[in-house]
Amino acid sequence: MPEDSDWEAYKVPPTRTPVSERTTSVPNPVTFFQTVFNYVVDAPVTFVREWIERQQAKNKFYYYHQKFRRVPDLSECLEGDYLCFFEAEAQWRRDRMVDQEIVEIVRERLGACKQREGPNQFQNCAKEAELLAQVTKAYQDRYGDLGVHGNARTCLMKQKHRMMEERKAQANASQ
User: Fold this and answer.
1) Cβ atoms < 10 Å from Cβ of 78
2) With 0-12 CB in 10 A as exposed, 13-18 as middle and 19+ as buried, what is 152?
3) Quick check: 75 and 156 in contact, CB under 8 A?
4) What's the predicted TM-score (pTM) here?
């Protein structure tokens, strides 16, 4: 459209909605019911909701800063203490997630070092490579061969079997 547009040439079309003209003095029942609804239903609900929001604003809960207390290991639970079993299982899952993140962070650091150093990566990234080897070996020793459905009990049994094999190997070496 040009700057000096002729408003007569570009008229706005009239609206198709007819303008309501009041011809009676009787109030509209729809506005009456809307007003009653607003005061009887909507106003109390809105008041309660705003009061709840004010109470929640006083005590903010940041889920991403949640800190869990350490619970006893599965080996420390008493027989038949299912709540302890559940807590130990949840603690084991959190520990496994933390260990996975540790391995991933060390792997990313090694990748960044290799990218940064280029052809000298074998000399300059030796510490990161050694750390990655240690971390992955520790993760594999603890969680390896458990599969997708591994849990705290199977992990504990795996550690027990590994310790028994190490004791047998020490006993055979000392004889």
Assistant:
1) 8
2) buried
3) yes
4) 0.57
Residue 143 is encoded by which pair of tokens?
Answer: 């969680």
Model pLDDT, residue 4: 60
Q: Work out how many domains the chain is built from and give that number.
A: 2
In a shared domain, residues 47 and 110? no
Tell whether 41 and 117 lie within a shared domain.
no
Instruction: Please give the residue that has the higher pLDDT: either 18 or 95.
Output: 95
Residues 6+ apart with CB under 8 A from 143: 96, 99, 150, 155
Half-sphere exposure of 98 (CA within 13 A, CB side): 7
Separate counts of helices (H) and strands (E) for the chain: 6, 0
DSSP state of 18: P
Q: 91-116: per-residue pLDDT in tens? A: 999 999 999 999 999 999 999 999 99
| Domain with 33 in it | 27-63
- Token output for 21: 């003209």
pLDDT by residue (tens digit) across 120-159?
999 999 999 999 999 999 999 899 888 888 899 999 898 8
Looking at the structure, tell me whether residues 123 and 150 fall in a common domain: yes
